[in-house]
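Listing S7. Sequence submitted for prediction.
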Amino acid sequence: MWVTSSTESNLQPTHVALGNFDGIHLGHRAVIEALFIEVESPACSVQAPLELQSSSHDAALLPRLSAPTTCYPTVVSFNPHPHAFFSGQPKPLLTVLSEKVAQLERLGIAQLVLLPFNRELADLLPEDFVEQVLVQQLKAQKVSVGFDFCFGRDRSGTAADLQAIAARYGIPVLIAPPQMVDGERISSSEIRLALAQGDPQRAQRLLGRPYSLSGTVAQGQQLGRTLGFPTANLSVAEEKFIPLRGVYSVWVESALFPTPQLGVMNIGLRPTVSGSRETIEVHLLDWAGDLYGHTLTVHLHRFLRPEQKFASLDALKAQIGQDCKTARAQLTELT
């Protein structure tokens, strides 16, 4: 997938799904999948994503790659997240960039354009945003947004405003309605709340897939080995949203494993051994070997128990053994 932060090096013309898309949840999918709905557009039509053989973002390649009868299904998002820009505080993300790219590729997106969110962009009036960004820079032929999309200075433009302004340029705008699951409206904020409350099952229903943590296995204190339960110390991206501290049943994927592995994950400070910083540790139930330097993707299944301090290492060891038995019983439903 073509990924760029410059509107001077994007594939054109485009069919654009516009928004933050943190999580690529079921609501976001409705917006993205609308790109593939046929609407009357004399300029171009969407085809299957172009397979780019080079990872280079050399703009000189674009004339050769672009075809006048092809509209490239494109997700346009913002970096940093507007909330982080206005608050001055980093916003933990449900999907960091590498995860977002992987999810979008699975949905058939050919291009991700990350607009640098700065004061200049934030101050654009809705009319100027449409003309300068969508029309001039992206050559958009169709746009898809969620029902609650806002844009322009002070978030003054609504989805309906976008539809009206874009119509002046002959650009149809599709507005995805609220998406519901089990009577609940899907949103990134509700997914964060579910994870913060230790409810990965609810988060999975809203996401349409398990919530995952991906990272590299780093050197730890190797305390788990002394207890008989060796763990992989997972180093994840700094901006990744971390769920409630505690113990989870998980399943783990890696290039090392031919099939997913069952496991138990602990997020926390390890108060029994006077830990001073938060760690993410994973114990694999049926696999042993050197994991250092390798990448693991850990999919959350269920929350087993909150973090707690035990009176002794023996008590901690006994509880870990029980956690493993509980996790195995729960995870058999996945196999």
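Caption to Listing S7: primary sequence and predicted structure tokens for the chain studied. Residues 47-68 have pLDDT under 50 and may be disordered. Residues 82 and 160 are 21 Å apart (CA to CA).
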